[in-house]
Design brief:
The chain is mostly helical. The protein is built from five helices and no strands. The protein has one domain.
Amino acid sequence: MSLTPIRQLVLLVALTALGVSPTAVSAPISTAPTEVVTAEEQPNMYLALGALITAREYLERAKQNKGGHRAKALALTKKAIVQVGKGIHFDDVKHQGEAPVTMGRQRAMKRAKKALETAIGALERATADKGGHRVKAHALAKKAKKQVKKGIKFADKH
């Protein structure tokens, strides 16, 4: 089975941004022409992936001093991105042939929290568990959100 061009791109960007080899998820990258498939087959997983990537970007921009919580949230968010990618791939293989927030202080951390909330909601709405990867991504995103909240609280006190 080969991934469609859009899915190849999404997985490649997500995994490359994390420094993970695309082969780590056993996702064959095909150069053969394939039909164009939109993200509508798994809209919540793609929404979650985009939101997690956004959260990762905001966490990377946030100032370093958050009592270690920003770094933990960032690491968990990166792991959640990988799990969503694996879940998308799992579902593709399994079903082959089937059919504004006021920010104030801590702006980057609050945006990361909002993006993580979006990802968590999307993962909750996604169907099935994608071989356990959706569930793992959901748990990791919730843990990342908790770390972001702790980081905001820590920075507000110091």
